[in-house]
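Why does residue order matter? Because the sequence determines the fold. Keep that principle in mind as you read this record.
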Amino acid sequence: MLSTWWIALLILAAMALFVYSSLTYDFTQDDAYISFRYAANFLDGKGLVFNAGERVEGYTNFLWVMLMALFKGLFGIDYLSTSRLFGVLSGALIFYLLYLLLRSHFEQLHWLIYAALAVMLLSNQSLAYWSIASLETSTFACMALAALVAEYRKPQLTPALLVIATLLRPEGAVVFGAILFDRIIIERKFPTFFFLMYFVPLLPFAVFKLVYYGSLFPNPYYAKSGVGLEYIASGLEYTWYFLRTIGVYGVILAVPLAALTLIKGHWTQYRLLYLYVFLYTAYIIWVGGDVLKVYRFFVPVVPVLCFLFVVSAVESLATVRQKQQAFALALLVAGSFSVGSYLLARDHVKAYWVAEQQITGKMHFMGTMLKKHMGKNFSLAASTIGMVGYQLLGHRIIDMLGLTDASIARNPETISGMTSSWKERRFNSRYLLEQQPDFILFSTGYKPSAPAERALMLHSEFRQGYRTTGFLRDQAYKVVWQRWRDIDMSRDRVFPDMEFVNKFNEGYYLQGQSAVQPALDAFNDAYRRLGEDFPLLYAAMGYCLLSLNQNDSARICLRKAIAADSLCWEAYPKLALLASRQNDTISVNRYQNFLMRHTPWLFDGSYVAPRRGLLASPSVAD
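Structure:
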């Protein structure tokens, strides 16, 4: 009885610590706003679409989107609050489900065993990180684990839980596959009734997808995934990084694998869990891992891995020690592992946490300023569409990576020499330019980083039909490419040298690192390769020359920039600086007045960022 009370207190304490850990992150992942936009359009009567009139399944979390819409429509609860509530509660519920899983395998469960498991899971930052991020990750992980627990305790509930999991994420089919395989082994025949209990409830959803979207597979499947060694290599890299950091150089997997060979009957008792881990990990490798780097795809696997680690340690130690000693040593082993896991993953998690806040903050700013200064009837193409798309409800948003655009996802271009660290490698720059978006927003400002961004730079119609403009934030400008004339692809010339784009990108990177002379060299190389007027390139070279105090050469470059494009705004402040050095106040005032007349938004410094974590409040987005 005392042990039962101890375990109950441990469960509550673990849940409380987990909730606290989740709340300390206090951020929203940019992709969550894609779901919010689908829910908002659905409630607005436009359909389950990202853009009005475009039936594209750009989400992979149908039930999650419906949950957001339901709570907003019936109770008026905003999407951010609903997603955080369900995310954190689901993460906390995992701690109780693990208790039930332990009870399924231990007739008399000692509190030390649960303590070891709770310590391991609490040290794993990925679960807390993704529970607060407003995505469906922890809720799906909870339902996947619930299905596994049900299979041990109440198997009649398993199909219903699997259906819910699959409606949350397509990977529910992987969980189903593991359980199906285990039942085939047990029953030595195909479990037809179980199969039908899973598939029949999903048939209406499949029919809806085929009729409404024209495909069983969600559009991100085409945009992100593929088949081939390239994807497998990426998946192996993703998996090894997880094992090396969170898994402490594979120890999280080595201990359960060792138990398979050392303990008689271990495989039979825990076969389903091993099948689940192996099958799900194989799936992760097959699809190439995940774009989001904080171990997101492994969140559904982590609770089961922690469980297998603890029970394997307990049973292995019990072969050489008394039970009480084995339990205490298992807690010590789990605690030592947890310290290593936390320390190895800490910097990685923190770096991406900071980066995610920066990107959502930037996109909130850009969406706000575009709405404020550019009217109501503009379109935008971007390679990061979550926050900016939610801020610009009612505007057409083109996802340059193809997540919400079927033409890009299913008809990708290929360009020789294209290299990028981005996992989203699909693009169709010609199609994108034919859509004539009013604005194109690169993820890193001036630098074309994603393949979709780099490809645009090769088109003469992009270089000649778009110019940058910017908005002032924290004494620096965040830029967006603005279309200033109609795009006519019949006159487009595709520049064949990808190295021009690489050097252009390198120049801006080096300039940001204050390596002015190397940046100038890179810009000069890009200019020689291009061999034509490009106002932005002239302005970049002029800036570098000015920083090197080569005033005459800087003046020549800056004047070439405005000769090629009178609204190349980057050149005017530098020309004004040169004029001020010569006490030419007339020219200084002329340059400033020109910008104030033609680009007044450059002088708007009124933006105030919302508090972290509240970037999707209805008062801002609606």
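The beta strands are 380-382, 397-399, 439-441, 466-473, 476-483.
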